[in-house]
């Protein structure tokens, strides 16, 4: 996408190729940005899930402890 060769050696062909190669570079930059954005969103979702599961696990442990020891204030 960034190494297009001109079909001829005239001014119009050279100008077209220059713009086509620049467009290819811009597109690859755009794709890289979107890849990084998606990876960051996946990381944030994983962190949220990990936090949720950690809280859920602590809650289950607290409920199980409360059931075994009878009523406890604050639970």
TrEMBL record:
This is Uncharacterized protein. It comes from Actinophytocola glycyrrhizae.
